[in-house]
Amino acid sequence: MKPRDRLRIAMQKSGRLTEPALDLLNRCGLTFRQSRDKLFCFGEGEPVDLLLVRDDDIPGLIAQGVCDLGIVGRNVLSEYQYTAGQGGPELAEWRPLGFGRCRLSIAVPQEMAYDEAAQLQGRRIATSYPGLLGQWLRERGLDAGVVTLAGSVEIAPRLGTADAICDLVQSGGTLVANQLREVEVLLESEAVLAGPQSLPTDERGDMIDLLLKRLDGVIQVRESRLLLLQPSRHALDAVIRLLPGGPQPTLLPVAGQPDQLMLQALCAGEVSWRQLEEIKKAGAREMFVLPVEKMLA
Ligand code: PRP
Ligand code: ZN
Q1: Atom of ligand 1 nearest to the CA of 174
Q2: Average pLDDT in the 246-268 region?
Q3: Does the pLDDT of residue 202 top 70, yes or no?
Q4: What is the pLDDT of residue 1?
Q5: How far is CA 61 from CA 8, 138, 261, in A?
Q6: What is the mean pLDDT of residues 165-186?
Q7: What is the per-residue pLDDT across 12-24, written as a single tens digit (0 to 9) for each?
Q8: Last residue in a domain, options 189, 209, 241
Q9: Domain boundary among 189, 212, 243
Q10: CA-to-CA distance for 36 and 181, rounded, in angstroms?
């Protein structure tokens, strides 16, 4: 394959990960021109293009070098390593991205008795994840029939083609609707940035490096809040003790009010009304909680 000078990122064409993945890339300063076939989107600012594909194809595209990076569920990435990817290059999970959270679980019909994994011995389990399920069963020395289905796994028990299923669970709505009960969690999943084990040594490696730094900033600020408030000097210690975690706050004098200070603190998560009320009671006023838009450490 001839070397490319532009970076190529693969992501799901249409599905649960599409919107949040695009939003994340936009926040990293990457914008794309939507092409007519919507398979290939040309990157406008930076030399980074997008390939919109079926999520199951993403690990293979990275392994073949067609794409440099991919945004894909950990479930798809792990399954690939156990099945199609065997013997090929190892892929790495570069960053967890904090969205698309779900779990790969085994579920059984409501009425089936279940206390321990041994009860799956000799049963048939329908799944789209034969690699991960097979590995899980092997680790427990269990011999069960793995029925591989491409989709609609949840109806297999009702159709009589399986006794249990192994599928993704997000809200749990699909299980309830099909009178199934979650009994084992095989994998906690979320969207991840996937790539080869080591960075390419050309300009694409530098570009990936830059992208990772921006991504870290974006992920960090996504949950960050800037807290501004005015504590009175004598209440300062009490107020600081109540601040939600984060680096040391910054203190500034307030013109014309020698007893007041201006305090600025970066908080790692949401600041609740309850927390604000406590801080106010301790001796602060003029309180603001602001979202953080960009951060570069
Ligand atoms: C997944 C999974 C379940 C459903 C679980 O399917 O296969 O069917 O989501 O989500 P819930 O717990 O919120 O109900 P998805 O909608 O991604 O489509 P697919 O099965 O065609 O991959
Ligand atoms: Zn489904």
Answers
A1: 14
A2: 91
A3: yes
A4: 47
A5: 10, 28, 56
A6: 98
A7: 999 999 999 999 9
A8: 189
A9: 189
A10: 43
The reported pLDDT for the residue numbered 2 is 55
- Domain count of the chain? 3
Q: Ligand 1 pocket test: pick from 174, 179, 182, 189 the residue with the most ligand atoms within 8 Å of its Cβ.
A: 174
61 vs 40: CA distance, rounded Å: 14
Q: Tell me, yes or no, whether 91 and 198 share the same domain.
A: yes
Ligand 1 environment, Cβ below 6 A: 16, 151, 154, 167-174
Domain span at residue 149 reads 102-189
CA distances for 49 relative to 35, 216, 217, 246, angstroms: 11, 20, 21, 36
Residue whose CA lies nearest to ligand 1 atom number 8? 174
| pTM for this prediction | 0.83
- 183-192 residue pLDDT tens: 999 999 999 9
Query: Do 147 and 206 lie in a common domain?
Result: no
Residues 211, 183: one domain? no
- Residue 74 structure tokens: 């950990």
